[in-house]
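Supplementary Text 2. Reproducibility record for the structural model of the 231-residue chain.

All settings were left at their defaults, and a single model was retained for analysis rather than an ensemble. We include the record here because the model underlies the residue-level annotations in Supplementary Table 4.
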Amino acid sequence: MNTLKILLAFLALGMIAFATSTILIFDDSGSMADSITGSSTTKIDMAKQAGNTFLNNVKSGDEVSLIVFYDCGDIKTEVPFTTDLQQIRDVIAGLTPQSSTPIAKAIDYASSYAQTSGRSGAQIILLTDGEETCDSQSDAVTAATNAVANNIKIVNVVGLGLDANSTEATNDQAIATAGKGNYYGANDVGSLTSSLSQAYNGGGSGSSTCCLSSMGLPALVGAALFFSRKK
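Retained model, structure tokens:
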């Protein structure tokens, strides 16, 4: 019986190992108060609506952390890693656009937070409606490069209301490329929801807690059943 309990404990740990840890970096800069051409809805309200729907589709057992940047020197972990996603909904609902766009510092901050919280291997989703305005674009690219070098799994970027051929979109694409990720564009609530979901699912699964392979779990279940019958 002791053997069975041990095997089942390892099985539970194996299931946890396949959970995804995601850091959502949320742009609360001043331009989020603007509307996209042709829409009467502000970008912040679009982001709130899409964020709620996106969170509804996060897989059971996956954890999300919310980091918000308000200004160059104002970046906060508003919600630590949690599976209680209502906490994140509540914070997002209360956001009001502030000032600048510190993408480089926000990525550095998120990468450091992942390391100190024991989530080496987490994925980052950056939701922004612009480009770096506090440091240089090269700093933002370097931050994404360093993040994956320091065991962040991937940095995906979701650009809201950016013309695909604009400098802002091109710069955000470069950040995603440096972070081994993808750039997703969005111009309304529907496409933003889809882009967030693609960024989440496109980042793959598994934080560095891991290490059972997809074949390892079935094998472990079989071993548990075998030993239980032997008893």
